[in-house]
Amino acid sequence: GGTLGSDDALRIQEQAQGVSSAARRRLVTTGASELLAIGQEHRDMDEVYGQALVEAGRLYLFAEDTLTALEYLVKVDDVQNKEIRAKGLFTRGEAYRILGDAPNVIRVFVDVIELFGEGSSWGKRAIQQVIALSQQGETTRDRLTGLNNLVPLHPDLPILIATTRLTIADLHQEQGEQLSALETLDFIISTPELPNELTIQAYRKKAAILSGSERYQEAADTYAALSQFTGENQTELEGTTNLLILQLVKKALKDRKLGETRIAAKSLKQLIDQYPESVEAHRAYIETKVMLKDTQEIQAWYTDLVRTHPDHAVYQYGQALALSY
Fold first, then answer.
1. How far apart are CA 261 and CA 218, in angstroms?
2. Are the C-beta atoms of 184 and 165 separated by less than 8 Å?
3. CB-hemisphere CA count at 13 Å for 283?
4. CA dist 67 to 26, 86, 100, 111, Å?
């Protein structure tokens, strides 16, 4: 036929499935030359020619003749069509991986990123490949070394670097190295003009680490900074605000545990004034006032609030809780 596609290559692969490797090689060689003949015939049609080279390369990979595959795949670089060039590069990556040539695999995927740009779908796929391939080695230490070596090599690819750093931060945290993780995340947060999704991920990871280390005020500040980025999305903004309030409640409860009960009551009262809808803040405030033996005062205060705001469900909850003591 005049056109060709993966179905020709697949047909040849199916025929070659149940035969000896010598017979398979013959089938593949015949198949590949047919493909390439069609490609040459349509040399002026970039896509047909490029696709023929890619399919021939795939067939030789299938026949475990990696070096011949590479001879054809390298030629795809001269094709104008970028999609075909990307397919050629991804297939070449597969060939280098079979040969155990990690540096060349990485270089091929960096070529894809530079060809298409970091934000494109090819670019995103290639970024994941580069990060996965850079984590060679048995131990987390080895993987960290590989990733850290990647960062200075590509100053012109900020999304690759930021995505690599997110992985580095995760590995540090797995190792219990919170400070190194936080330092790495701060690099991402301070990088200008990154896509929002990466900055948001960095803020979320940072806040979670701070909260886990009982650094509640800093966690709350991080959620406050994050809410600048999630401004457009109402649901996300509410989620972030709730996490922020939760950090401040935890901070007050930590003060209370350390015997600073009055300070805890005062900060919880400020929190309620600022976020009257937070059930957690009301609950913690009432418990703390009861510990201070201010039960009657708190009961009167909530009864008053319900009188002036009869439709406010959270105040009604607060009153019921205060009266239960």
1. 21
2. yes
3. 8
4. 16, 19, 13, 20
User: Who's near 16: CB < 8 A, 6+ residues apart?
Assistant: 23, 24, 27, 28, 62, 63
Amino acid code (one letter) for 166: L
What the block records as the tokens of 208 is: 């979670």
Query: If you search the block for the tokens 């803040």, which residue do you land on?
Result: 281
Q: Which residue has the higher pLDDT, 49 or 4?
A: 49
Q: What does the alpha-carbon distance between residue 63 and residue 53 come to, in Å, rounded to a whole number?
A: 15
Mean predicted confidence (pLDDT) in 201-216: 96
User: In three state form, how does the secondary structure of the chain look?
Assistant: CCCCCHHHHHHHHHHHHCCCHHHHHHHHHHHHHHHHHHHHHCCCCHHHHHHHHHHHHHHHHHCCCHHHHHHHHHHHHHCCCHHHHHHHHHHHHHHHHHCCCHHHHHHHHHHHHHHHCCCCHHHHHHHHHHHHHHCCCCCHHHHHHHHHHHHHHCCCCHHHHHHHHHHHHHHHHHCCCHHHHHHHHHHHHCCCCCCHHHHHHHHHHHHHHHHHCCCHHHHHHHHHHHHCCCCCCHHHHHHHHHHHHHHHHHHHHHHHHCCCHHHHHHHHHHHHHHCCCCHHHHHHHHHHHHHCCCHHHHHHHHHHHHHHCCCCHHHHHHHHHHHCC
pLDDT per residue as tens digits for the range 170-204: 999 999 999 999 999 999 999 998 999 999 999 99
Q: What is the structure's pLDDT at 6?
A: 57
The one-letter code for the residue type at 192 is P
Amino acid at residue number 62: F
Nearest to 252 by CA among 271, 267, 240, 234: 267
- 95-139 tens-digit pLDDT: 998 888 888 899 999 999 999 999 999 999 999 999 998 988 889
